[in-house]
């Protein structure tokens, strides 16, 4: 009987940003500046005013000025002024780090595990993340930003670029994202991935994979 070889130890962890490292809240930027009912409609899952769709175009590498012009054509001047306000005050949509994640990143560093970022984010608004949370820039060994690369999760090319750029072995990585499609995109190119729910669950999984010592759990 042949023993099944053990899975390789996880040596590098790749994190999505919004919903994993940073608590992104569109409504936090708009509340207090607009009627609550309008804020709720703008931020609804069915995206009736197109904020998420047009922000996604920016995440894919399109410039804000071009996106805003297209937004105005579809939704008119009044909504375009609101979308413009949202993008120009983007830091207000990032109220805090996800609870427990700063400590998790610090513990991974202390354990000698690589810590990386892979995010769908506009090249124009991504710098706001580091302005709001400068410690993130210190804790991440490198980041791939979709709007800079003009690549976009869950397409294979952005995961493959991340592995090449940072010299990572896919089999020794774990990727965390809060979006199921992005998790599947990583798995499709051979990178183990998990759907993020909270810092404690992520920590427990990383302990089980050898990326953190058990006594830190």
Question: What does this protein structure show overall?
Answer:
This is Haloacid dehalogenase. Mean pLDDT is 95; it is low at 1-5. It is built from eleven helices and seven strands. It folds into two domains: 12-22 and 97-212, HAD superfamily/HAD-like (Rossmann fold, 3-Layer(aba) Sandwich); 26-93. It has helices at 26-30, 36-42, 51-59, 64-88, 101-110, 126-132, 134-139, 146-149, 156-166, 180-188, 199-208, and strands spanning 12-15, 22-23, 96-97, 114-119, 143-145, 173-177, 193-195. It is an alpha/beta fold and 217 residues long. The chain is globular and about 55 Å long.
Topology:
Elements: E1 12-15, E2 22-23, H1 26-30, H2 36-42, H3 51-59, H4 64-88, E3 96-97, H5 101-110, E4 114-119, H6 126-132, H7 134-139, E5 143-145, H8 146-149, H9 156-166, E6 173-177, H10 180-188, E7 193-195, H11 199-208
Parallel strand pairs: 1-4, 1-6, 4-5, 6-7
Antiparallel strand pairs: 2-3
Helix pairs in contact: 3-4
Organism: Bifidobacterium mongoliense
InterPro entries: HAD-like_sf, HAD-SF_hydro_IA, HAD_sf
Protein name: Haloacid dehalogenase
Number of strands: 7
Unreliable stretches, pLDDT < 50, 5 or more residues?
A: 1-5
The shape, in one word, is: globular
Number of helices: 11
Largest sheet: 5 strands, parallel
Q: What's the architecture of the largest domain, going by CATH?
A: 3-Layer(aba) Sandwich
Q: CA-to-CA gap between the ends?
A: 35 Å
| Strand/helix succession | EEHHHHEHEHHEHHEHEH
If strands are numbered along the chain, what order do they take across the biggest sheet? 5-4-1-6-7
Residues in helix, % = 40-55%
Cα Rg: 19 Å
CATH class of the largest domain: Alpha Beta
Strand content: 5-15%
The CATH superfamily name of the largest domain is: HAD superfamily/HAD-like
CATH fold name of the largest domain: Rossmann fold
Organism: Bifidobacterium mongoliense
Protein name: Haloacid dehalogenase
Pfam families: Hydrolase
